[in-house]
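Late entry, evening session. Most of the bench is empty. Finally got around to the prediction I had been postponing all week. Sequence below, unchanged from the version circulated by S.P.
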Amino acid sequence: KQWVTIGQEARRGLLMLGAAAATGFIAAAVALDHLVKKAGDFQDMAEKIGDTSENIASLAVSAAVGGIGMEAVVGASAKLSKALTGVDDDSKAAGAAISALGLDLGKFKQLAPADQFETIAKALAGFEDGTQKTAVVMALFGKAGAEMLPFLKELGAEGGRQVILTEEQIRKADEYSDAQKRLHAQ
């Protein structure tokens, strides 16, 4: 009779262990699916601002440490592009800001968006924190420019941009994410 009780308890324990393992597997699968979709988002962001997805992804760590989302980085890049459109000298706010950073406007406009962020970040490292620094970033990124300062500070720091995903990994993640969206819509 004692063996029967031990056998029942062992069976219950194995069932509980199996249920816990299944729950853990499902949670891991959901988390992996979420991460893959997030990686695919870098492709969509790259298409919005005209850069490679790998370059955009390389800004993600600095953005996270700086306390802003990548959507804010994409928005700031769009604002910078708009501010630089038609600017050929330092007579306009964006041109004056680029000049104040000690950068050549013509060369700066030729850079990819991620490279522009990195160039600005490194140039800002020479500025003291204060109103002049804030004015420069606001001239480049609009009203939200001040919110970009922690991100730019982190980007200009020793770690700088970090390649976290390759172009191919992001492309495959984007294809997966798009297929999932199509399937869901159908």
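Two things to note before I forget:
Residues 33 and 177 are 9 Å apart (CA to CA).
The two ends are 57 Å apart (CA to CA).
Will write this up properly tomorrow.
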